[in-house]
């Protein structure tokens, strides 16, 4: 500071007068007030997130409590009965939904809004007068042997045919129940292998015979979904299709319906749309979707571009993904116009596209169909839809994602299955008749008493015990993802009949 009486000088280009103490004080007050407002906004957002999470946890808890009370009176998970028509069983909805479906009916002037707590907008418009989405076709790929759930899941009776919630409905029946409000039996297609056709018809008697597409052999998800897209595009060139796996569990019906409805609106704009699940923990068992810029669609306010797809990460990488807040689990759900999917397939995998189009051209002629299948199917490339079209299309800005709030699990191993079952404190989860399991000083783990024999455990924690009439599996929850290695060893050792 200069001595009193001498004016302060400033370098050229700077202000010619100092900021007074009062001015500085006002600036500080304004900055503090702005910080208080921002903190209040953050607290409000956190409160909304806590409410949303509490609601989701309550729905799951209520479902688990129902499981606990019903587990002694219902069939064990490996003995799923063939039920009557799903359409006629109004009291048997999807096992992992809360069953409080809202009324989507609206008047002619105003739409109905559905909250999306973890999205960027407080509400999501459901633009139709009823839950049915016109022109929307459901595709349910029912493939895979579920080797990580062996010996409970077998090649001839895989996990999508099992009742893993002890509510009398298998996973594929639950998928049917969950999606039927959005479409109809006439617009629901299942793609499965020849060994599962009869069981699927038994469990889904309302499934139209011409909507059960039988693939001669497993060729992964691109061939299965591509075949359905080619057949449906031939039947309805304007079809919007949604592919949903037959063996996943979902909780939170309202959020699920909203996410699918939003995805359909985005798909109409010529996008391949996936549904991104808000991760609850840094899982190494799921792939991830990195969120990109907002699309800015009025009909789908939460939709964003997909920046990239990420393969299953290691634990450190998964934790870093979660920390950023811009990653979602890739649940393998895709919604798109059938013709647009075929366009992507023609661009990125032309040989696979041409083979599927040849098959679809004669699909409704059973004799010609079998001839073409015999000629073409074996030569088709075996590749997941993510690698075939989703990843290259995302790099060109042609894939979108709808961030979703519902609970989701692919029930990929016995550890994840254990998390979905009820249990008393310091006791293992039991899938089946709990009277056949006696424990002392045992915590955690899961026991499947499938043989009818008494199972007793003393002083062992977090074990996986699956006792079937012909096979006994014992491992730990920590290594439950490695069960498929045992399946390979059993096959190599000549025990194929047990697989």
What's the average pLDDT?
A: 81
Secondary-structure-based class equals: alpha/beta
Shape: globular
Strand fraction band? Answer: 15-25%
Rg over CA atoms, rounded to whole Å, is 27 Å
Quaternary: single chain
Distance between the termini: 88 Å
Uncertain segments: 10-16, 61-129
The major sheet is characterized as: 5 strands, mixed, barrel
Instruction: Tally the beta strands.
Output: 19
Strand order of the biggest β-sheet: 8-11-9-10-12
Give the proportion of residues in helices: 25-40%
Count of discrete alpha- or pi-helical segments spanning 4 or more residues: 12
Topology:
Elements: H1 21-70, E1 112-115, E2 123-126, E3 136-142, H2 171-179, E4 188-192, H3 197-203, E5 212-214, H4 220-235, E6 240-243, E7 249-251, H5 253-267, E8 272-277, E9 287-294, E10 304-310, H6 315-324, E11 327-337, H7 338-348, H8 350-361, H9 366-376, H10 385-395, E12 399-404, E13 407-409, H11 414-419, E14 429-430, E15 437-440, E16 446-449, E17 455-458, E18 463-467, E19 472-476, H12 483-492
Parallel strand pairs: 3-4, 3-6, 4-5, 8-12, 14-16, 15-17, 16-18
Antiparallel strand pairs: 1-2, 6-11, 7-13, 8-11, 9-10, 9-11, 10-12, 18-19
Helix pairs in contact: 4-7, 4-8, 4-10, 7-8, 7-10, 8-9
